[in-house]
Model the fold of this input.
Amino acid sequence: MAYKAKIRVTLRPSILDVQGKAAQHALANLGYTSVESVRIGKYMEVAIEEQTAEDAGRVCTEICQKLLSNPVMEDFTFELEPVN
Amino acid sequence: MAYKAKIRVTLRPSILDVQGKAAQHALANLGYTSVESVRIGKYMEVAIEEQTAEDAGRVCTEICQKLLSNPVMEDFTFELEPVN
Done:
């Protein structure tokens, strides 16, 4: 069965987000002073073909830990949904 | 009032995702052959201080169009939530 995983990888709150700070300053220069902070992470959509949702969830957790995120600096969350 | 916008920026379906293809091949080499496709985008959390949710949504749409996404190649969606 086919599943789609929607994965969000975010920098841990204690890690300085230089890219996000740069975006925030650029927005302030454009006049968007109501934007108080920007934090930038990754969003991934992964198609997984497994028998059960449990198997797909296990694969998704493993690939996030091993390749798609850096566990030292980043956290990840995902939602799994079946695809018709 | 403070709002948090959770923004997803994704490559349009017609655009080849080279980074995603590389990740998929790396996963196949690690043995995760049930992963059939990977598409990589950006996930951003933006804190916005505006009077109303309408104002915050308008600011969010504008900053996505002007700075946070490339409208030629990317789509964006966001959810807005009030912060206590």
Notes: The mean pLDDT of chain B is 97. DSSP finds two helices and three strands in chain B. Residues 9 and 42 of chain B are 5 Å apart (CA to CA).
